[in-house]
Amino acid sequence: MTDTALTQRHVPADLPTTIRHYIDGEFVDSADGDTFDVLDPVTNETYATGAAGKKADIDRAVAAARRAFVEGPWPRLLPRERSRVLHKIADIVESRDQRLAELESFDSGLPITQALGQARRAAENFRFFADLIVAQADDTFKVPGRQINYVNRKPIGVAGLITPWNTPFMLESWKLGPALATGNTVVLKPAEFTPLSASLWAGIFEEAGLPRGVFNLVNGLGEDAGDALVKHPDVPLISFTGESRTGQIIFGNAAPYLKGLSMELGGKSPAIVFADADLDAAIDATIFGVFSLNGERCTAGSRILVERSVYDEFVARYAAQAKRVRVGYPHDPKTEVGALVHPEHYDKVVSYIEIGKTEGRLVAGGGRPAGFPEGNFVEPTVFADVPADARIFQEEIFGPVVAITPFDDDAEALTLANDTKYGLAAYVWTNDLKRAHNVAQSVEAGMVWLNSNNVRDLRTPFGGVKASGLGHEGGYRSIDFYTDQQAVHITL
Ligand code: NAD
């Protein structure tokens, strides 16, 4: 380690050195005592060991969750009563946002200001589903004089929640909020690269009054703990966020049990910039769209398609702005791109940068930034003139790397936009209202932002098409996923 890294590294006070499972209201180690190393991305030194869960630990956690579902009060509480607990959870998360952000930033390498935003979003997710569940109305259908039919919505049971390492705490809240609001009990398997913030849920939930056994946490590797959760016969639901390839494996493993599956998967989202767009706004937004959250963002606009008449100007201005994006230590409030999560992921991103050098024209970045000899730091990297068959155009890099490609007309823009296996998000920049809506209709993406950054409205569907996902969450769609809808028919 260099002096720079030593002096710049910020270690949060009271950092735990062991990260354990939380099962039936108790912190416990793995049944076989196995652990895995948890690294800090600034130095890549092990700062803690995580309990490496296996089938025995998942069995224990599922049994506790099942008991809490069958015998406990949680599924039987009135929505208002569950809502109160969820609001309390949101209050506690909000009141600890600085500490949460500090730990998340340390564990994941995310810039501290952005980690703080994610902690607040986590609170908002709980608050949103707390409100939604009390506003929930179920359908009733009348056949005059003959029949009344109504929908009886019921929690399903033990929900298995499997989450990735990018914005871990926030993404966990996106599943925990609706799963708990609807009266299910849960087993959470967080990503092994970033287990720190997930371990904080236990204390928060206890303080908020969530009954014992409702929330269970098993750490460990995907192929061990995650696999056992997917294959557990008493877990009827799996909500998964992660890579498309992992989604395929989970889909196959869940098939014999006919489980309910919700999958939020990878992306290679296009940002289409037409010549008539407000270029200042488009450049700012597309810079933010791929370099915020270290580029480790499922909805990153990682392919920018630019109309040829403004292409040269766009590329020159974009490259200049990318060079001004500030890479720094994650805890520094001035940092805009921190350290990538893990050396394995760093190697993947850097290998794509090397591939990109043979596929496109490097106009910004391209390697390790000066002054950061250690840790997972990567310069914001921009490739121009990238052809559609390039790997950096087709494959998800999940880092601060963007491919820019010119197009000549609307039809070509759409062909290029749709020319990947993914279909998560799309961004369109134009001042022509008709064109904006027409492109939105034809682009293969679960979510489209017109002249806008990626700003979420929690009531809208969140999810992708093609290899980017299966099903939608968000608003009542989350409630639908986590409940059975029983039809009750009454003859008059
Ligand atoms: P990943 O697929 O490697 O891992 C995700 C989770 O699945 C981890 O907890 C992992 O341990 C677990 N897992 C791995 N193999 C498993 C198996 N065989 N059975 C059960 N569980 C298993 O993904 P990642 O690298 O942690 O996350 C990055 C990916 O997530 C990117 O592709 C990104 O686009 C995607 N993502 C999607 C969204 C979305 O909403 N669409 C949001 C965030 C991230």
UniProtKB/TrEMBL annotation:
Q: Which GO terms describe its biological process?
A: 4-hydroxyphenylacetate catabolic process
Q: Which InterPro entries match?
A: Ald_DH/histidinol_DH, Ald_DH_C, Ald_DH_CS_CYS, Ald_DH_CS_GLU, Ald_DH_N, Aldehyde_DH_dom, DH_HpaE
Where in the sequence is the active site? 264
Question: What GO MF terms are annotated?
Answer: 5-carboxymethyl-2-hydroxymuconic-semialdehyde dehydrogenase activity
Question: Which Pfam families does the UniProt entry name for this protein?
Answer: Aldedh
Please state every residue range assigned to the domain named Aldehyde dehydrogenase: 27-488
Sorted alphabetically, the keyword list is: NAD, Oxidoreductase
Q: Which PANTHER family match?
A: 2-AMINOMUCONIC SEMIALDEHYDE DEHYDROGENASE
As for family, the record states: Belongs to the aldehyde dehydrogenase family.
Q: Under which name does UniProt file this protein?
A: 5-carboxymethyl-2-hydroxymuconate semialdehyde dehydrogenase
